[in-house]
Amino acid sequence: MEAYSGFAEVYDMFMDNVPYREWSQYLTSLLRESQISGGLVLDLGCGTGKMTRLLAQAGYDMIGVDNSEEMLQIAREQEEESSDILYLLQDMREFELYGTVQAVVCVCDSLNYILEEEDLLSVFLLVNNYLDPGGLFLFDMNTLFKYRVILGENTICENREEGSFIWENFYDEEEQINQYDLTLFVRDGVNRNLYRKYEETHFQRGYELHRVRELLEEAGMEFAAMYDAYTKEPVRKDSERVCIIARERGKRLQRNFCGNYIEKKKVGQVNE
């Protein structure tokens, strides 16, 4: 699952087309609609921390989890001195927190990097486990339509003054696995006549949306809504990205005097 190693230091340069601020406002509005205007929020697959920092600026106490040490190093370097963001080097398939959080967000198709259904279920189970009772899970995913039709077997190139990239895409319809070989040429910061070359291969999986819902419910969560990317519009056949909202369901918990959650006992229940 690990990706973005050598590419980490130039990731933000080539992701400048992602409307992080608009997306953060969308996420914030959904959180506030659920009366979550502050408190702990986890950003799964936080990368270089752009979304993490924007949500922190919106008033949330942020935790960022990513499995790339290089990405987290950049996130820490870009963090403001006044910020208290906690960054954790962990695989989202087996992450651990010290306690529960009010919400979990996961953006930029990070969950598409989970290539096996059982691993995706593991992520959902962990999210449900670490959410406060009734807590919110907000995430996006690339669709099968995007992998099949938009990316397919295409090659994408972009040339800029500071760097260029070549994206060679391959899609396996049977396995629903999308592979892209990424080659980047980035101008050196000291010798402006020199370009450094990076090469990486990434794998993502497209999921049937009904199956994502089933896995959420199997993990114990309540499926709340699914929208065309970062809107309140219904999902279309040609939607390239979707946003999904789920809630924690089923915890019978109460806070003890230390602020930690403890399991409620049914009337008449005793410990053996």
Q: Topology, pairings included?
A:
Elements: H1 11-14, H2 20-33, E1 39-44, H3 50-57, E2 60-66, H4 69-78, E3 86-89, E4 101-106, H5 117-130, E5 131-142, H6 144-151, E6 155-159, E7 163-172, E8 177-187, E9 195-205, H7 209-218, E10 222-228, E11 241-247, E12 253-255, E13 261-263
Description:
The chain is of the alpha/beta class and 272 residues long. The chain has 2 domains: 6-142 and 208-263, Vaccinia Virus protein VP39 (Rossmann fold); 146-205, S-adenosyl-L-methionine-dependent methyltransferases (N-terminal domain of TfIIb, Single Sheet). It is built from 7 helices and 13 strands. The chain has helices spanning 11-14, 20-33, 50-57, 69-78, 117-130, 144-151, 209-218; strands at residues 39-44, 60-66, 86-89, 101-106, 131-142, 155-159, 163-172, 177-187, 195-205, 222-228, 241-247, 253-255, 261-263. The strands form 3 sheets. Strands 3-2-1-4-5-11-10 form a 7-stranded mixed sheet, sandwiched between helices. Strand 4, helix 5 and strand 5 (131-142) form a beta-alpha-beta unit. Helix 2 crosses helix 3. The chain is globular and about 60 Å long. Mean pLDDT is 88; it is low at 254-272.
